[in-house]
Specification:
Blueprint (H helix, E strand, L loop, with lengths): L7 H17 L5 H13 L3 H13 L1 H9 L1 H7 L10 E5 L4 E6 L8 H4 L4 H4 L1 H9 L1 H9 L8 E6 L5 E5 L11 H5 L4 H5 L9
Parallel strand pairs: 1-4, 2-3
Helix pairs in contact: 3-4, 4-5, 8-9
Length: 199
């Protein structure tokens, strides 16, 4: 299940090879690939979730609305759609860390996180994250959550799709929303990676 099983270079090489093969066989065109890449870069994906997180970090009123009614708050930023109608945002604190799983399949808030990563759908992740979250986070993701923090694992479903509002990193006072967005990853909004300020 290890997320670190393949490097990003290996994954990129496989994707490029598949793309080339599909174009050669006439299954897709270069224009189609570019079109879908643009959609995932600009219209869906974790950059939209990062935008929401950054807004919540700098705007307490927005943060309160997000925690109270995530779909409505996201709609204020023009973000929403299928698989996002019943989102719930969980706020990390100094005492509590949240992590997300879907034990039945791969229910996931697509409008803010894009398509789920393969490891999220892996049966081992889905079963182990419920039983031993601290071990999974450390061994599979290299994320050592401090022992003083409680880890709460939330099971997403077709009725409720959870995602995480991470703790804002220390040393980012005065940063713009654009600067803060760059710190937020898909994995941090699933709860399997920290958000850290770049030194």
């Amino acid at each position: 299940m290890s997320k670190a099983g393949r490097t990003s270079e290996e994954i990129a090489a496989r994707v490029k090879a598949l793309e080339s093969m599909m174009i050669e066989q006439g299954l897709v065109t270069t224009e189609m690939v570019d079109h879908y890449a643009e959609i995932y870069e600009n219209e869906v994906g974790p950059q939209l979730g990062a935008k929401v997180v950054a807004k919540a970090w700098v705007d307490p009123d927005f943060k309160a609305r997000l925690l109270d009614d995530a779909p409505a708050a996201c709609a204020e930023l023009g973000i929403g759609g299928i698989q996002g109608e019943h989102m719930v945002v969980l706020e990390d604190t100094a005492d509590v860390h949240h992590a997300i799983v879907c034990t039945l399949c791969s229910c996931y808030p697509w409008p803010v996180l894009g398509p789920p990563p393969n490891w999220y759908k892996d049966p081992q992740y889905r079963s182990r994250m419920i039983r031993e979250p601290r071990t999974v986070l450390a061994e599979e993701f290299g994320y050592d959550v401090d022992e003083s923090r409680e880890i709460r694992v939330w099971d997403s479903s077709s009725e409720i799709r959870y995602w995480v509002l991470p703790v804002r990193p220390v040393g980012t006072d005065g940063w713009t929303e654009e600067q803060l967005m760059a710190l937020v990853s898909r994995d941090s909004m699933i709860g399997v990676a920290p958000v850290e300020a770049v030194s």
